[in-house]
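Predict structure. Input: Alpha/beta hydrolase, 227 residues.
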Amino acid sequence: MLHLPDTPRPEAGHPSVIFLHGFTGSKSEHHRLFVLLARRLAQLGIAALRFDYRGNGDSEGDFSEMTITRNVEDAVAAADYLRNYPDLDPRNVRVLGFSMGGLTATLAATKMQAERLLLWAPAAPEGMLRILNGKIPATTTDHGGWPLGRQYFLDLATHDTRKALAAYRGPVRIIQGEKDQAVPLQTAISYAEHANAELIVIPEADHIFGSFQWTDWVFEKSIEFLI
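Output follows.
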């Protein structure tokens, strides 16, 4: 879903933002976070692209075949799509990643040539592997009704967010809920060790920013960074 601005086209074209959703999420995300922010950005002159990874949401494919590497490929393809889209600035593609989407965005940012990187409660490989208690399943496993393939975990262990952040040269903003039970605050603190990163912690907020007040705060700090 591509939200296009109604505002006058700048000489170089409109800037754009790619939204990367979380684990078992979708292009809408919890309480339509992505939809609402994308519409706000379009009103401000910034195009916004929301999509489902292969095997997720409305996209074709099997969820059991999902890997972080494949999600990164999807993110890079989305950036290529926007760079070739009429009236959009090919040099001004930004990326927003939520939870697992934050992990994906971090790993993809340099390949996407992202102008800036916005992370909401970004997950880390070691945190996602922790649910296995150190044991990678031999076959596809039932994860709350989601068929999670063995390759997902094998692939996850190959990724290094610190290395990816070190290679990325653009500005980074991280927004994290203080009381997030899905992705610990310490994970965001580790991400924020990147030289060009700043961390904003929302007091008392949970993983999905599940209140009007928290959502308003996230949107305010996100728009401030993206415009």
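Helices lie at 33-43, 68-83, 100-112, 125-129, 150-156, 161-167, 185-191, 212-226.
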